[in-house]
Amino acid sequence: MGRNKLARFRQNEENKNVVQPGKEIYENIQGGWQDFFGNDQPITVELACGRGEFTVGLGRSHSGRNFIGVDIKGSRIWKGSTMAIAEKLLNVAFLRAQIEQLHTFFAEGEIAELWITFPDPRPKDRDEKRRLTSQRFLDMYETLVAKGGLIHFKTDNTGLYQYTKEILADRPNTRILKDTSDFYASEWKEDHLGIKTRYEKIFSEKGETIKYICFTLSSA
Q1: What residues are labeled active site?
Q2: Percent of the chain with pLDDT over 70
Q3: Per CATH, which fold does 1-107 belong to?
Q4: Which residues, 6 or more positions from 50, have their beta carbon under 8 angstroms from its beta carbon?
Q5: What is each CA distance from 29 to 44, 95, 104, 155, in whole angstroms?
């Protein structure tokens, strides 16, 4: 393991805005995120946040909400964590965990809003259950996201976009509020305040259109 990666791991241990294995809070954070932030603001979660640019951007733009980026790679969330600390963004935190285990870190209805941003498309049929918009994951989100809470999905992958639309169409009580195969040519492009993930920038520069769906899994 490289020296830089080891240094980042040590920094994550010190950074108070990182919840990860080895810290006491990691074992009992479920249902306690507002206590963690020290306020009662609604919680927005970004899945597979990578280096955290999008999570930090949301926190920077919306001071009245709390934001948590989730990723398993400690060397990635180090970037967003240190950025948030440097900018004194007390409403931004990071959770180092497997997304499959999200239900062990959040209580029922604790998440007000969820972002699924540019997940691995997992194109092979045998990997369907690992797609973050599969029925398996949607069942979990339906429990953790408050009733009527918005779920945002963005991807450059046409196959995953079409798959997600089909899956959502099969679920009762699901409402698709926004749907476009070309986000930056849509009426909603200003809603995201120009905040982009690293991968979104890469895909956009390559000329890929960004697909976007905003939906709820249960009625309020």
Answers
A1: 120
A2: 98
A3: Rossmann fold (3.40.50)
A4: 71, 73, 76, 197, 198, 199
A5: 15, 10, 9, 30
